[in-house]
């Protein structure tokens, strides 16, 4: 039996899990959603959901991991043999996400290289981004580099690789975010953007706001992909689980909030208040923002630190994905870390290359108007994740019972302060909300 690795301290665990949670979703998706769905009302809705729904699922996953000391497949099987299939589902999700997430990570590295080498102007052309991703070789090379960096850290192991890198990168990420946010909110004319971001607008509030906030929260907190189970399995028994979850929530929501402060005022100043410039997705990060940076004083510098920050965010998330996959194979087949890393790297290079080439030579492959990358994203995020989360709630709420999680939370000594909230959420409220998310994301995705 191999001895299970551990995070050496609570702060190591919290920073690694926050590293997973803080990712591309916080930076390019949250600001856009907040701006679109009612500003302050969206923020408030998001926070309420994070501390109830998000808290519940994250606590459950970390507890399942720590209790069993195993990653997803082993954890579900150990608690109830009939539910091993949930572990398999939890294994499939990161296997799908990791490759395409790394393709986007490669794009971030490319933009970082453009900014740091002082070629920012080149990236402001309208066709620059499209030209880059439709090229077959260049995006593949950046993708390979991103995966290689991730693999090296995962190869170094939980304490010497993941924990160490998180302890360095996460504080730097906070610092860089603060620098950029302070700079952009003090730009001339930033006030209008700030008001748009922060002032509650009930007129833009609807059931859709709740759905959008919920979908975002779920992805942003890295729930329902086996990650928190895996990281939980490396958490020490005497570290406070409930307190850690609260710290991760604060970290994740804080960075998302700061991303809005960085992006929305700056885009407003640049576009003269034209909200359509805030469109979501790759367009915002790789087309609009380079233009915004190019238009401001010190833009080359701000753009460079912005892309380093995004790179750190993406890398620590990719590490958690890869570690989850590696851990699953190691638990299942008792492979060495080295062999598992090589295997996962090769597998991901193959799958990711398909996503990357899907914008160039393979662009004829599409389904309901989605590229290969979008298809992978749709299957994992819109279908498999809500299904897994729903089953996890049913599993904890009715099969093993919430007490098993509550006891695990109390293992470190002390009480489980939010036990009542947890029990009601996991048995009733979360499953209902999840069915609604699932139905609506299938309807929008295929609509
Ligand atoms: N939570 C990450 C984000 O907000 C997303 C992520 C997805 C992380 C998958 C790990 C795995 O971007």
From TrEMBL:
One of its GO terms (molecular function) is symporter activity. It is a multi-pass membrane protein. The chain crosses the membrane at residues 12-31, 43-64, 85-109, 140-158, 170-190, 210-234, 255-273, 293-318, 339-359, 379-400, 421-447. The keyword Transmembrane applies. It is found in: Membrane. One of its GO terms (cellular component) is membrane. Keywords: Membrane, Symport, Transmembrane, Transmembrane helix, Transport. CDD domains: SLC6sbd_Tyt1-Like. NCBIfam families: Na_transp (NF037979). Belongs to the sodium:neurotransmitter symporter (SNF) (TC 2.A.22) family. This is Transporter. It comes from Suipraeoptans intestinalis. The lineage of its organism: Bacteria, Bacillati, Bacillota, Clostridia, Lachnospirales.
């Amino acid at each position: 039996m191999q001895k299970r690795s551990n995070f050496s301290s609570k702060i190591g665990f919290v920073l690694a899990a926050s590293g997973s949670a803080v990712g591309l979703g916080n930076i390019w998706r949250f600001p856009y959603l907040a701006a679109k769905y009612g500003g302050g009302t969206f923020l408030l809705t998001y926070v309420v959901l994070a501390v109830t729904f998000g808290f519940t699922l994250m606590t459950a996953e970390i507890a399942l991991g720590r209790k069993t000391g195993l990653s997803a497949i082993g954890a579900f099987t150990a608690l109830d043999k009939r539910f091993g299939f949930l572990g398999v589902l939890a294994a499939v999700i990161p296997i799908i996400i990791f490759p395409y997430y790394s393709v986007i990570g490669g794009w971030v590295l490319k933009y970082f290289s453009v900014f740091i080498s002082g070629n920012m102007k080149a990236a402001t052309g309208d066709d620059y981004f499209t030209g880059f991703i439709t090229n077959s070789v260049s995006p593949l090379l950046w993708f390979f580099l991103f995966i290689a960096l991730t693999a090296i850290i995962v190869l170094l192991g939980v304490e010497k690789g993941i924990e160490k890198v998180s302890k360095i990168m996460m504080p730097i990420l906070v610092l860089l975010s603060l620098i950029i946010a302070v700079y952009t909110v003090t730009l001339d004319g930033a006030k209008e953007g700030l008001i748009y971001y922060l002032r509650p607008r009930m007129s833009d509030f609807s059931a859709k706001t709740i759905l959008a906030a919920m979908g975002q929260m779920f992805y942003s907190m890295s729930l329902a992909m086996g990650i928190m189970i895996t990281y939980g399995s490396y958490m020490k028994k005497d570290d406070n689980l409930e307190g850690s979850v609260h710290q991760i929530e604060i970290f994740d929501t804080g960075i998302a909030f700061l991303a809005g402060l960085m992006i929305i005022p700056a885009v407003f100043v640049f576009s003269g208040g034209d909200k359509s410039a805030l469109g979501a997705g790759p367009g915002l990060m790789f087309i609009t923002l380079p233009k915004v940076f190019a238009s401001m004083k010190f833009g080359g510098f701000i753009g460079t630190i912005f892309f380093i920050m995004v790179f750190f965010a993406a890398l620590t998330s990719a590490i958690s994905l890869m570690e989850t996959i590696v851990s699953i194979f190691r638990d299942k087949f008792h492979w060495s870390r080295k062999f598992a890393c090589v295997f996962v790297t090769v597998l991901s290079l193959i799958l990711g290359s398909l996503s990357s080439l899907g914008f160039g030579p393979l662009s004829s492959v599409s389904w309901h108007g989605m590229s290969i990358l979008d298809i992978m994203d749709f299957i994992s995020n819109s279908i498999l994740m809500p299904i897994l989360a729903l089953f996890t709630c049913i599993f904890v709420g009715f099969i093993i019972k919430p007490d098993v999680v509550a006891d695990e939370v109390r293992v470190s000594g002390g009480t489980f302060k939010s036990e009542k909230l947890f029990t009601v959420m996991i048995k009733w409220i979360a499953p209902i909300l999840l069915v609604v998310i699932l139905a609506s994301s299938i309807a929008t995705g295929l609509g």
